[in-house]
Amino acid sequence: MDSSNHLKAAAWWPSPAKLNLFLHILGRYPNGYHQLQSLFQMLDFGDRLAFSVNDTGLITLSPSIEGVADDDNLIVRAARLLQTKAKVTQGVHIQLDKQLFMGGGIGGGSSNAATTLVALNHLWQCNLSEEVLAALGLSLGADVPIFVHGKTAFAGGVGEHIDATELPEQWYLVVNPGVHISTAEIFGAPELPRSTPPMNWQDYCFEQTRNDCQQIACKRYPEVAKLLQWLLHYAPSRMTGTGACVFATFADQKLALEVQAKLPCNWSSFVAKGVNLSPLKQKLYEVNAARDMN
Ligand SMILES: C[C@@](CO)(OP(=O)(O)O)[C@H](O)COP(=O)(O)OP(=O)(O)OC[C@H]1O[C@@H](n2ccc(N)nc2=O)[C@H](O)[C@@H]1O
Ligand SMILES: Nc1ncnc2c1ncn2[C@@H]1O[C@H](COP(=O)(O)OP(=O)(O)O)[C@@H](O)[C@H]1O
């Protein structure tokens, strides 16, 4: 797959991927969740969702995701949550174009939920603020608020303390080693390091950070270690989130595509640009501008 303009087509709302350029675990809250520091890089590549509002009051999805009941799908759960909170009587049929690897640490489910909240807030005319949408999103998953805000950002807490930032727009080769890693499994591992000292965002430098989940993922899933080793021959590389995808960083698209072409064929991948403003946020600006002109 190549990064493309497909996220921009008119009726579709983009649902982009993210990378965690680093992921530090500082400690654990009494409820068992982990206190994190991370840099979320938005990408210009992802899934797409289209919404057809109707008067049935029902929320339907097609196609369903294999292995995920519609009632558990974060898209349907986000739509229901908004419908209830904003007392909406309308329904919606949602079409999903899934491109992102699932369980890869690139945020597909959380991004789908955020796109649903942002798009339906507009289409159902709920007029909820971004902060309220982000708070609703947090009840669905720790990463949903980041995608609602739609900016490359440092995040603290479980992901709810967000500081937008501007990074040089680099290119990333994102590779799936073909294993599915559950977030809960990694966070439940007794040997997970949980005491990285807090850092100031101003001091960020890629080389001086790490992903605290990477060592465990490599040990439990040797395919992740193999992939990481392979990519490190070509570029600075690291696992994203709790895995399983690994990204390699390049100054331009051509270099990223050259390395992608050399990948062994059992590893699927995509090349994407890191962006400071997410394609979802760009789409929202466009639809708001079009509405204001009418
Ligand atoms: C750590 C990150 C970084 O992006 O990993 P990825 O899932 O993207 O790989 C995310 O914040 C993950 O967020 P998300 O995938 O939404 O997690 P949730 O559904 O909220 O939680 C899944 C499970 O992971 C554990 N969990 C999650 C987040 C956190 N800060 N501490 C935790 O201990 C909890 O056991 C929870 O039951
Ligand atoms: N719309 C959705 N897209 C992807 N996964 C979803 C969705 N709804 C629920 N899920 C569940 O969330 C799990 C994590 O998916 P995903 O967000 O892609 O991974 P990650 O959190 O590692 O980035 C999936 O394995 C699936 O069971």
TrEMBL record:
It comes from the Bacteria. Keywords: ATP-binding, Isoprene biosynthesis, Kinase, Nucleotide-binding, Transferase. It catalyses: 4-CDP-2-C-methyl-D-erythritol + ATP = 4-CDP-2-C-methyl-D-erythritol 2-phosphate + ADP + H(+). Its EC number is 2.7.1.148. HAMAP family: IspE (MF_00061). GO terms for molecular function: 4-(cytidine 5'-diphospho)-2-C-methyl-D-erythritol kinase activity; ATP binding. Residues 73-151 form the GHMP kinase N-terminal domain. Belongs to the GHMP kinase family. IspE subfamily. It holds the Pfam family GHMP_kinases_C. Catalyzes the phosphorylation of the position 2 hydroxy group of 4-diphosphocytidyl-2C-methyl-D-erythritol. The gene is ispE. The active site is at residues 18, 143. This is 4-diphosphocytidyl-2-C-methyl-D-erythritol kinase. InterPro entries: GHMP_kinase_C_dom, GHMP_kinase_C_sf, GHMP_kinase_N_dom, IspE, Ribosomal_Su5_D2-typ_SF, Ribsml_uS5_D2-typ_fold_subgr. One of its GO terms (biological process) is terpenoid biosynthetic process. Pathway: Isoprenoid biosynthesis; isopentenyl diphosphate biosynthesis via DXP pathway; isopentenyl diphosphate from 1-deoxy-D-xylulose 5-phosphate: step 3/6. Residues 220-267 form the GHMP kinase C-terminal domain. It is an enzyme of class 2 (transferase). SUPFAM superfamilies: GHMP Kinase, C-terminal domain (SSF55060), Ribosomal protein S5 domain 2-like (SSF54211).
